[in-house]
């Protein structure tokens, strides 16, 4: 018997990152700057709170929307850090990571053929998740010379009568781009004018540097009612494995998302939810400590890359740098493959994040500084060897 796979799933390409990292895993002694995951373990006070909850026998299902106590903590946290007020009982849903929340929002909003716009280069899952929800992905290229932020006029150019939603992710994976509030306000005006819903993925919002404060698009007048605010604990709290995210949105949309969540997932794990309460209520100090460490690493990696001749903007957020590698004469994929094979350093080829990523590679600085230092040394040798190779040819 041959099993037939649904057309819209069969046609989704495998993630470029996954293919690449299968090769990395088959090699020894590789320094990986490829992974989008904090190298820190979850801060001890958060782990301890979860252990204590387990000891008290908290091992069952929770309400579909998530523990009411956690939803209150989320509401307070967002009010304090983002100045947006969400009603804990009707406007917040706890999900299995931001990943699930994005999927729920798209499935609840889209009819087949609705278009969803997103800025590219972007997180690898956006286009496939839109397709899986029967939507049509519509990328808008962002440019290195604009710091990879989204221009309102570029957004406006791709809007059609089928446009339904805009996905935003600032600070951005993979570029580290952030948006100035005035620019974001222009994007908000376009969304209001064209009646777009905004899915705002704020997962890196605590990881901004030089004291820069993140602004969510949901704060602008007329935006809270058309924004799905998506956030989670994976990155800033170093809690990727706990799988806790959340969506905040108008009650009717949360209700629709809850139906999908209820029948497909039931609820996020109670262990993760108990840990998340501690993280949101008392984790600020731990986040600040990790942010200081990331900022130090960022400063080091940006100067090292520029010194070796790879042009690299200093990202204002996230834990990624996105240097340009065109001066080496190699494509992103050849650069990454040769760097891996010749120097055992793994970086992600830019096109894994969309066609606009060609000419770049993504290096994560969520790796300990001593490792980053060795990786930069090896990469400088590699770039030097490439230069000598090309000088010999010409
Ligand atoms: N959104 C962005 C922009 C990401 O970079 C990631 C993970 O890398 C996610 C969402 C997924 O996060 P979670 O672990 O909360 O599912």
Task: Outline the fold blueprint.
Elements lengths: L6 H4 L5 H10 L5 E2 L11 H12 L12 H15 L9 E4 L1 H13 L5 E6 L5 H7 L3 E6 L10 H7 L4 E6 L12 H13 L3 E5 L25 E6 L12 E4 L2 H14 L5 H13 L1 H24 L12 E2 L10 H12 L1 E2 L1 E2 L11 E4 L4 H25 L1
Parallel strand pairs: 1-10, 3-4, 3-5, 5-6, 6-7
Antiparallel strand pairs: 2-8, 7-8, 9-12, 11-12
Compute the number of strand runs.
12
Order of strands across the main sheet: 2-8-7-6-5-3-4
Helix/strand order, N-terminal first: HHEHHEHEHEHEHEEEHHHEHEEEH
| CATH homolog superfamily of the largest domain | Type I PLP-dependent aspartate aminotransferase-like (Major domain)
Mean pLDDT: 95
Instruction: Please state the CA-atom Rg, rounded to the nearest Å.
Output: 21 Å
Shape type: globular
Walk me through this protein's architecture:
The protein has 394 residues and is of the alpha/beta class. It folds into two domains: 7-42 and 285-388, Aspartate Aminotransferase, domain 1 (Alpha-Beta Complex), CATH 3.90.1150.10; 44-282, Type I PLP-dependent aspartate aminotransferase-like (Major domain) (Aspartate Aminotransferase, domain 2). Helix content is 43%, strand content 12%. It has 13 helices and twelve strands. The chain has helices at 7-10, 16-25, 44-55, 68-82, 97-109, 126-132, 152-158, 181-193, 251-264, 270-282, 284-307, 332-343, 369-393; strands at residues 31-32, 92-95, 115-120, 136-141, 163-168, 197-201, 227-232, 245-248, 320-321, 345-346, 348-349, 361-364. The strands form three sheets. A seven-stranded mixed β-sheet has the order 2-8-7-6-5-3-4, with helices on both faces. The protein has a three-stranded antiparallel β-sheet with strand order 9-12-11. The protein has a two-stranded parallel sheet with strand order 1-10. The N and C termini lie far apart (58 Å). The model has no long low-confidence stretch (mean pLDDT 95). The site of pyridoxal-5'-phosphate has 13 residues, from α5.
């Amino acid at each position: 018997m041959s099993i037939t796979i649904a057309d819209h799933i069969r046609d989704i390409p495998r993630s470029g990152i996954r293919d690449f990292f299968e090769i990395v895993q088959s090699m020894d002694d590789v320094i990986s700057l490829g992974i989008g995951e904090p190298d820190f373990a979850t801060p001890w006070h958060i782990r301890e709170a979860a252990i204590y909850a387990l000891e008290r026998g908290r091992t069952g299902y929770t309400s579909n929307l998530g523990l009411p106590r956690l939803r209150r903590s989320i509401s307070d946290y967002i009010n304090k850090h983002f100045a947006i007020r969400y009603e804990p009982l009707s406007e917040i849903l706890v999900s299995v990571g931001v990943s699930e929340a994005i999927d729920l929002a798209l499935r609840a909003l889209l009819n087949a053929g609705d278009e969803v716009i997103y800025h590219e280069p972007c997180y690898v899952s956006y286009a496939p998740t839109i397709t899986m929800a029967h939507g049509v992905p519509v990328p808008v290229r962002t440019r290195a010379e604009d710091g990879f932020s989204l221009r309102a006029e570029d957004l406006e150019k791709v809007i059609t009568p089928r446009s339904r939603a805009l996905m935003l992710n600032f600070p951005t994976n993979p570029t580290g781009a952030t948006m100035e509030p005035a620019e974001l306000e222009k994007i908000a005006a376009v969304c209001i004018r064209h009646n777009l819903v905004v899915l705002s993925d704020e997962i890196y919002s605590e990881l901004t540097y030089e004291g820069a404060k993140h602004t969510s698009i949901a704060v602008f007048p007329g935006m809270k009612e058309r924004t799905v605010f998506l956030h989670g604990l994976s990155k800033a709290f170093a809690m990727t494995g706990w799988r806790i995210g959340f969506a905040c949105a108008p009650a009717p949309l949360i209700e629709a998302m809850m139906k999908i969540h209820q029948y497909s997932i039931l609820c996020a794990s109670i262990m993760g939810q108990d840990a998340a309460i501690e993280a949101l209520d008392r984790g600020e100090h731990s986040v600040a400590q990790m942010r200081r460490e990331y900022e130090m690493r960022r400063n080091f990696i940006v100067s090292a890359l520029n010194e070796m001749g790879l042009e690299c903007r200093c990202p204002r957020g996230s834990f990624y740098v996105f240097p340009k590698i065109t001066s080496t004469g190699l494509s992103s994929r050849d650069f990454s493959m040769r760097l891996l094979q010749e120097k055992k350093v793994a970086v992600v080829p830019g096109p894994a994040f969309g066609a606009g990523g060609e000419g770049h590679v993504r290096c994560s600085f969520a790796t300990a500084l001593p490792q980053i230092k060795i990786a930069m040394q090896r990469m400088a040798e590699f770039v030097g060897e490439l230069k000598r190779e090309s000088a010999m040819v010409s």
